[in-house]
Amino acid sequence: MTPEKSKEKILVTPKEAAALLGVKPSAMGRYVTEGKLAAWRTPGGLLRVGDLRFDRAEVLKLAESLKVHIPILQDSDTEGN
After folding, report:
1. Which residues lie closer than 8 Å to 57 by C-beta, 6 or more apart?
2. Domain that holds residue 31
């Protein structure tokens, strides 16, 4: 996983966020429209799931609230948290 850093937040793609939550990447748009997760749009501004980026810390909080089991994170996965 190679997260993008932006203003001290680690941003992840829908595929990476979905892997953390144990869902399909297409489900990420639903979390945004339901207000469960904020997303950043990439330049272009269209709301396409593939163009969204998610704050990794917020994805992990959502996973915790949904009681999703997350395997032990490696040291490189916890940088910036």
Report:
1. 9, 10, 80, 81
2. 4-69
